[in-house]
Amino acid sequence: MKVIDIINQAQESGKPRFSFELLPPLKGDGLHGVFDAIDTLMPFNPAFINVTTHREEMKYVERPDGLIEKHVVRRRPGTTGVCARIKQKYGIEVVPHVICGGQTKYDIEDLLIDLDFLSIKNVLALRGDAMPGSTRFKPTEGGHAHADALVRQIRDMNNGIFIDGEPNTSHCSEFCIGVAGYPEKHAESPNYLTDLGYLKQKVDAGAEYIATQISYDAEKIIAFRDRCSEIGINVPILPGLKPFATKAQLNVLPQTFSVELPQALVDKVMACRDNDDVKKVGIEWAIRQGEELLKAGFPMLHFYTMTRTQQVQEILKGLNIT
Fold first, then answer.
1. What is the pLDDT of residues 72-125, one digit of tens each?
2. Residue (of 101, 202, 111) closest to 144 by Cα position
3. β-bridge pairing 57-62 and 68-73
4. What's the Cα-to-Cα distance from 319 to each of 6, 135, 140, 257, rounded to whole Å?
5. Closest CA to 249 of 284, 222, 281
6. pTM of whole model > 0.90?
7. DSSP 195-215
């Protein structure tokens, strides 16, 4: 089933749903941790599961002669295999992330063909991050520089058009395409309005829904949806939530995700004795935020779990989402 149909059904029924995101395991690890995380949330009837994709990194190794060798490594490979295994084991829809970074257009085309063969019909199209240690994103030679171009490639494949331009008349893919949106703007955008313009380009290219970057302010997410509507972005929006879990996140989250933390949340976290108390604050804050968003008409919530789901379980109980 396509994500857009799941969202529309939730909207029409008035019964809120949720989805969540997982990381593929580190290279060399099995799927036990992934399955354990999914098992804890299956009783709440998740609508679908996103699986992230991670680009290559550089590893520097000192040789016996003292010189440094540079190696390209992938620490979390296997997104396609993880998605296929989840769908096989649980019968739930999966949404692999497809990124521009580290891939040519032909690499992406091959990936999409594999996903189509596996009957995976949903993807989240992202530019992806810059290489670790780099200050700016640099497209791979023969690849895409921006997510709207990636969306167009996926849409073209749905229409039977491959990178070489030759039409395919016997079989077309049917990918439902999601993209990312930023209630507090992307870190690289010069301002909020410009960032909304980039988002509209992705929707105009063929995106069917938007999953937002995390924000801890429900009013900002609601305002983001309303502003999108004003400029002609009329696809569904899934608010992204990540429960606060540690005091260190007071510094890490704003730097990593370019989000502004509400002062009330900062005060509550700073008053905590330890991270166990922080987790309780994170659960309570996410429940209140979720209540506001559902009341404002969002049919679904999307949780960024990092494969840690204990807090999400408590949030779903508090929101009575089953």
1. 677 888 999 999 999 999 999 999 999 999 999 999 999 999 999 999 999 999
2. 101
3. antiparallel
4. 19, 40, 43, 25
5. 281
6. yes
7. HHHHHHHHHHHT--EEEEEE-
Per-residue pLDDT of 213-270, as tens digits, reads 999 999 999 999 999 999 999 999 999 999 999 999 999 999 989 999 999 999 999 9
Which of the 8 DSSP states describes residue 25? P
Helix (H, G, I), strand (E, B) or coil at 125: strand
How far apart are the C-alpha atoms of 3 and 159, rounded to whole Å? 19
DSSP sequence for 226-273: HHHHHTT--S-EEEEE-----TTHHHHHHHHH--PPPHHHHHHHHT-S
The span from the CA of 300 to the CA of 238, in Å, is 6
Q: Are 148 and 205 in contact (CB under 8 A)?
A: yes
Are 284 and 269 in contact by the 8 Å Cβ rule? The answer is no
Q: Which of 215, 210, 61, 188 is nearest to 134 (CA)?
A: 188
Q: What is the dihedral of CA 83, 85, 91, 96, to 10 degrees?
A: 0
Residue pair 4/95 in contact by the 8 Å Cβ criterion: no
